[in-house]
Design brief:
heterodimer, A: alpha/beta, Nucleotidyltransferase, domain 5, 5-stranded mixed beta sheet, 18% strand, B: 5-stranded mixed beta sheet, 6 strands, transmembrane helix (chain B), Biopolymer transporter ExbD (chain B)
Chain lengths: 181, 203
């Protein structure tokens, strides 16, 4: 594509004229390359910023830890091994536990339904479900992040993280095959 | 009737201006981009749908993976001040040269006893070294606690802003390690922190 002016010259006799060369250079390839690099740098600079999600823990030193929440409003979620979840409503033993998995039709559905149920029972949209997350030693960090995520997706109004897993709960999980030593 | 001649227009356009603009932008992006440092501990972060962008300043990252914890704080001035304070705490004096070198380290996971040696290494040596992580067992030798505490003091003194903490954990990391880190943070009454995740669509 580079255009070279080849006219002129080649005349019989007369003076020998130096060829006039065009100064135009084809820039297509250069522009292509430049834009490619621009795209690359633009994407890498904006995407490199780390993303994060916030989480809150209850204050350890706060002695009034006992929240005034009716047991019927609480849902205890136990994170077990092999990405398994066991949850029950209210106090342990009151309601049969359910084994769930992560995903659209798993815990998310349960959270949404339980939340609806609780709101229907209390008749106050502000008094929705209270989820208590109890990650066991066998759960992995991903489970923890996932459950926080699901809670936010399901619009559950309140949640708490409790690191004290009771023996009865471990037993419950073992019965359901969600806790492997 | 004379034939109507269609003028053939040249397809070549003058690209000088476009080229100028393109390279101007390119230069800008290259200069503003910061080269990403290779991470001392490679972790595979979990994904979540709810995310926001972390701020660039006044933030400290605790990388957790393979049962090890690595510490890093943003800002060279904060790093130097933190090192000063840690030195005082453990009766180690660091030279100005060492402080300068330390200011360039993004994150690290060595006990304080071998910190001097670690600072003296150059980048390629550091990459080869498998760092043992910062000791964070409960008890006297909880160095991570000191690092967190001193970094908070340093940031407060220099920028007058509370230092934020973020946890960058490996997906496969077992929960007890994470709990230990959260406990250390909570002992200092840090109840709000961020978990570094990658963005994922709702499925």
């Amino acid at each position: 594509m580079a255009e070279l002016d080849t006219s002129g010259g080649d005349k019989k006799g007369g003076k020998v004229r130096s060829k006039k060369q065009s100064t135009k250079v084809d820039l297509t390839a250069m522009v292509d390359l430049a834009f490619l690099l621009i795209t690359f740098f633009m994407l890498t600079t904006t995407l490199a910023k780390p993303q994060a999600m916030d989480m809150f823990m209850p204050d350890k030193n706060d002695k009034n830890e006992e929240l005034d929440v009716k047991a019927s409003r609480t849902m205890t979620v136990l994170l077990g091994s092999d990405n398994k979840i066991v949850w029950y409503m209210g106090v342990i033993g009151d309601n049969p536990p359910t084994v769930d998995n992560f995903g659209k039709n798993g815990i998310r559905k349960s959270l949404v339904e339980n939340n609806k149920q609780v709101i229907a029972n209390t008749g106050n949209p502000e008094k929705g479900l209270m989820v208590i997350i109890k990650p066991t030693d066998k759960s992995v960090y991903k489970n923890f992040v996932d459950i926080l995520d699901e809670i936010k997706i399901a619009n559950v109004p309140s949640y708490g993280i409790n690191n004290k897993v009771e023996n009865a709960e471990i037993g419950l999980m073992k019965d359901q095959g969600a806790f492997k030593e | 009737m004379p034939k109507v001649k269609i003028k053939r227009k040249s397809t070549s356009t003058d690209m000088t201006a476009m080229c100028d603009v393109a390279f101007l932008l390119l230069t800008f992006f290259i200069l503003t981009a910061t080269a990403r440092q290779p991470e001392a501990l490679a972790v595979e972060i979990p994904s979540s749908t709810v995310t926001f962008k972390l701020p660039d300043t006044d933030i400290s990252t605790l990388t957790v993976g393979e049962d090890k914890v690595f510490f890093g704080v943003v800002g060279q001035d904060v790093r130097i001040n933190t090192l000063d304070r840690i030195g005082k705490q453990y009766n180690i004096t660091f030279t100005d040269q060492e402080k300068k070198r330390f200011a360039l380290i993004d994150n690290f996971g060595v006990p304080i006893a071998s910190l001097k040696q670690f600072i003296a290494m150059d980048n390629s040596e550091r990459m080869k070294l498998t760092q043992p992580g910062i000791p964070c067992d409960s008890g006297e030798n909880n160095q991570l606690k000191q690092w967190i505490l001193q970094a908070r003091y340093a940031n407060k003194e220099l920028h007058n802003v509370e230092l934020r903490f973020s946890i960058k954990g490996d997906s496969k990391e077992e929960y007890p390690t994470i709990r230990r880190v959260i406990d250390i943070l909570q002992d200092q009454e840090i109840n709000k922190f961020s978990l570094i995740t990658s963005l994922e669509g709702v499925n």
